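Section handout 9: paired folding examples.
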Amino acid sequence: MTQFYPVYKLLDKPRTPVSKLRLAREIGHKAGLEYVYEGNVPGEGGENTYCPSCKEMLIERFGYSISKNFIKNSRCPKCDSFIEGVWSS
């Protein structure tokens, strides 16, 4: 989910509160989704990827830019769980 940010002709509408994005993320996790992100709120932590098994941070982002990727050979470096995805180009 991505935070609404008022621009152009919707300047009279408020931003989506970060607390609402956090709640939506928690609901997604409780529903069984492994990778749920808070978008458009860089630096809040909700844009990072965590291991679904041990909760170790796997990918650190600032906004949509990756600053660190800790995944090695498609595995979590802490618990060795397999992480779905394409990790090399």
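Moving on to protein 2 of 2.
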Amino acid sequence: MARLDYYDIRPAGLDAYLSYYGYHFSPAMVRWAVDRMKPRSGGSMQMMDKEAVQDLLRRQNVTVENDIAYDVVYAANMIKADRWGSSVRNDEQLAAAIKDELDDPDGYEGQLFSRFLSDCNGKGIPIIWEDVI
């Protein structure tokens, strides 16, 4: 599998996506990303939508300062897929991990999306940008 950074030309659809959402998740992009997640526990991934994530955060009295576009939805689902049953065992820990991920004091705007793009690049997973705008 070839890494995507070997290509010299940036996909035109990427520029269109960034003009709409910047380095943040759109509703379609977060769905696309979550559909490809593999839970640590095996089986299939049941996506938490934005309403479910916001409800979880409210119940746990957690406020995410850098809740931009659908980044919080990606963070919740990524943490649930990668850490549930290991370092995250309940809703309180999940809410805290979401906040930690998005409100990282030495992070930068778009950090989560940039990491996601890097992961896709490293795995050689192409994104059809027109499908996720």
